[in-house]
Design brief:
116 residues, mainly alpha, 72% helix, globular
Length: 116
């Protein structure tokens, strides 16, 4: 049964523990490219660096390319309800929370594809 990790660090640790970290990176690269937001996380990227680069990318999208940001969320299939629950008063915090939602959804896809 799929259990949602509580935060980004636990999610990335779980992905590594199940030997699915590379699949997670591949899935993220694929979905970002589908949304025409070219990002190329190298397969050798560390979990901490992945977290930082994703946060930076989301922050920039929210700040400068909001329509593209919304398109990315749609392509990845991030829950609209969860996005609406977030407090958007601090963009840095918002980008961190959205990054976690993106990672969570991508991890869910990879996990289910691996299990079933």
């Amino acid at each position: 049964m799929f259990i949602v990790p509580k935060n980004t660090d636990l999610l990335l640790t779980e992905a590594e523990g199940e030997n699915l970290y590379l699949k997670l990176i591949e899935q993220m690269n694929k979905d970002f490219n589908l949304a025409n937001e070219a990002i190329d996380f190298p397969l050798s990227i560390s979990p901490n660096e992945l977290k930082l680069q994703l946060h930076d990318k989301i922050y920039r999208l929210i700040q400068y390319k909001f329509a593209e940001y919304l398109n990315l969320l749609y392509i990845i299939d991030v829950s609209e309800e969860e996005i609406k629950k977030l407090d958007g008063s601090d963009l840095v915090v918002l980008a961190e929370q959205v990054s976690f939602l993106i990672l969570k959804r991508e991890w869910q896809k990879v996990w289910f594809r691996n299990k079933y």
